[in-house]
Amino acid sequence: MRNLACSSAALIAVAAPGLVWAQTAPPAERPVEEAQPSRVGDVVVTARRREEAIRDVPSTITALSAETLEQKSPIESVGDLLQTVPGVRFNGVQSENLAEISVRGSGTQRATSADSAVGLFVNGAYAGSSTLGGRNFKRLDYFDIARIEVLEGPQGALYGRNSEYGSVNIVLAQPQFRNGGRVSATYTDDLQQLRLDGIVNHQLNEKVAFRVGAQVTGQGGGVYYNPNQNKYYDHTDGYLVRGQIRYMDGPWDVNLLLDAQDMNLPTFVNQWVVPPGRLAVLPQGFTGPRYDVPSDVANDLHQTVQRAMLTAKYDLGWGLLTSTTMAMQYHSKQNFAAAIDLATQGRLQASGQIGLYPLGGTTTDVKDKTFYHDVHITGDAMDGQLQWLGGVEVLLQDDDYTRDARTNPCVLTATSSICGGTPTAPVCYRLIPNAAACPATFPLAFGSRRVVPSEYRSAAVYGSLKYDIGALSLSGELRYSRDHKTAQQSDFRLYTTTPIGVPTSYDFDEDNLSYAVSASYRLSESSLVYARTGTGYRAGGVNNGTVVANAPNPLQPTYGNETTTSYEVGLKTDIARNVFLRLSAYTSRTEDAIALVTDGCTAANACGQAGTNFNINGGTIEVNGVEAALDAVFEIGGGRLAVGVNGARQDASFVEVAAVAGAPIKDSMVAQTPEWTFSTNLNYRRELTPGLTGFANVAYNGQRGGGQDTVTATSPFTPLEDLDNVDLRWGVLFRRMEVAMFVRNATNQVIPVLKLQQVDIPLANRYTRPRTFGVSATYRW
Fold first, then answer.
1. How far apart are alpha carbons 89 and 627 in whole angstroms?
2. Is residue 252's pLDDT more than 90?
3. What's the N-to-C CA distance of the chain in angstroms?
4. Cβ atoms within 10 A of the Cβ of 446, count?
């Protein structure tokens, strides 16, 4: 484990996180930052940019507190935040840089140069981007959180661009006006990973409080191993730091936050699964190792983030003014390769096969700078019968994307030597005794480099009105957005300044009008029925990839906006004391749907390199679905049992397709949209003796049906694997000390999360992590 130096900074998070129901120990054992609501449905959220109970919001929304999430198991990824949310799926694909969130058939499907169709927000500030890493939260975003809010269905009117199928808002814990804190250690045995966390909250006086925290991770082992370099593909180490300061005086509530991340994160590894008789270069077939995968080239991911956020609230008397400003930059560099080394290639050639080029690989280098500012005012009139909101928003993003694709500079045969190195320092590897010498001058390019700087400028004005007429509530939301994007693309022969083709530039200038209208009727104090319609859009952009002249599908340089209109009806009700039920049904239609397709290249066909994914406006998508969720608390056996159960059914398909090369096939499924998702979470807590409390948690989530990729003429349907994941956690709480054991993937189900293939020929798979065990200890004061 390497030594890590951490520095702390001063600051603060967003305004009052609201009330989140959770199981908490008595005040003498654990300080409670906010009073707890009396009923499950009374959780307070900020879904409509004002605080209100979840049972009063006329749309599908889920809110989970940090404690509820940590009861399941340690939070290691965004998937841990979302695995119990109905209709939501997290596509991890082993690498956080490529991971993304799918809601209600959004199916972004590894769209490598598109924004997520789900809005990503931290403390209400937009945290996504259209470059690599921009469709997933950073680890910094789910460190020391207060809660997470998930809104399903189009949220374009209040949340703007890329909240087309929903939005996820992570609310960070903020300074409280009391003294306290915690320290914790989490050790995962199978990874030999140790994570240390520390949080200190201190009240300086009646007006000022601060909160500082840090997390340090070190890892000595792993599951996926590269024996050639004595490194693990799933290695994690590094640090997170955050400092916050909060000032409250009269009408003012001002928060300043500064934080940073510097981490080495898991990259991905593929297992070759080529069957015999299907590929000319591997006529005998080839199945590589799954866990100990040798490679002679770099495979890693390093990500840094720096962020500052200022939130100010001022009570005007007649309205509440809220200003949120965020400046963030991140740098993400990843290396990945074809998962074969020189020694393996030598064995393939010795058996008479051409084999695979062992020195190929890709490096992606992304730098993003984001500035976000939002100002809005909320207020009431007519004795609270009329509620109104008005706001303006600005987003500025600068991205620099570079992709190096390393390819074979010589023709590969069953008796050729392997060409490598660079044009100024060529290297020849003779792997078999009868191998022919490398050419004196390597005849082909060593690969290509694509450089894509881009600028994104977006501004919007928005507002909403809500009017109550007895038990009936009517509301409307409206937003006008203007988006402008410029991008330049230049391609070069790798390791040289020799251009490939002519540099190109693109200029986007589009506007959008999004709306939402809802009506709700309170059947009783604890029952609400509602109907809602709304729209949202996902901004278009530029494809980042490498042009290959002989690709079966030519790469398209640009793609335009997609827009979605949705209709939803629902019911929220208490069916018993602290038994809260939510039901909803919806239908949506997406025009100019952004679909990811491939250029059809592989390292084993005429292209000689891995395929390039790119985006097109593939046609029109229709999605239909139903969702149900039940949350309850029961007193059983002298303890308290909290139950969360949900399920969702969704059908998403292309009902119309565009007339372009590589377009989806009509009536085919939208990629990465399971037909069924479901989960159950059970948490039991009971006092064993005075001062000693025992607890146990069982979390299950599963999925059925759906397809992996967009189905095209050259990409057949590839089914998603059925998933059944069980996480267990149990332990004891003695006064302020908590000790717990946990098991991730208790049934040890290992399935492919990604299947790579050439037309219908399997090539390689990427898998989930097998079962892991661990222990954690936490002390609070």
1. 14
2. yes
3. 29
4. 23
Residue 510: Cβ-neighbour burial (10 angstroms; 0-12, 13-18, 19+)? middle
Question: Pick from 231, 222, 109, 105: which is nearest to 166 by CA?
Answer: 105
Contact (CB, 8 A) for 104 and 166: yes
Q: Residue 468 in contact with residue 385, Cβ under 8 Å? A: yes
Q: How many CB atoms lie within 10 A of CB 29?
A: 16
103/120 Cα distance (integer angstroms): 12
Secondary structure class of 82 (helix, strand, coil): helix
Whole-angstrom CA distances from 562 to 114, 485, 620 are 11, 15, 9
**31 has a pLDDT exceeding 50:** no
Own/partner pairs for 642-646, CB < 8 Å, 24+ apart?
A: 642/23, 642/681, 642/682, 642/683, 642/684, 642/685, 643/680, 643/681, 643/682, 644/84, 644/679, 644/680, 644/681, 644/682, 645/679, 645/680, 645/681, 646/84, 646/85, 646/86, 646/678, 646/679
DSSP type of residue 71: H
Burial pattern 279-298, b for ≥16 Cβ within 10 A else e, equals bebbeeebebebeebbbbbb
Quick check: 367 and 304 in contact, CB under 8 A? no
Cβ atoms of 70 and 655 closer than 8 Å: no
Over 70: is that where the pLDDT of 92 sits?
A: yes
Q: Element (H or E) spanning 406, and its range?
A: strand 386-406
Confidence of residue 608 (pLDDT cuts 50, 70, 90): low
Fold (CATH) for 40-407+445-780: Maltoporin; Chain A (2.40.170)
pLDDT on residue 599: 79
Of 139, 137, 138, whose CA–CA distance to 120 is shortest?
A: 137
Which helix or strand (DSSP H or E) is residue 249 part of?
strand 237-249
pLDDT for 609 equals 63
Using the Cα atoms of residue 340, residue 749, residue 23 and residue 775 in order, give the sign of their dihedral: negative
Choose among 374, 662, 692, 424: nearest CA to 543. 662
Tokens at 777, concatenated: 């200890």
- Nearest CA to 73 out of 188, 174, 219 is that of 188
Q: What's the predicted TM-score (pTM) here?
A: 0.91
Task: Give which of 70, 219, 242, 245 is closest to 148, Cα–Cα.
Answer: 70
Q: How many CB atoms lie within 10 A of CB 505?
A: 12
Phi, psi (deg, nearest 5) at residue 175: -60, 135
* Other CB atoms within 10 A of residue 56 CB: 18
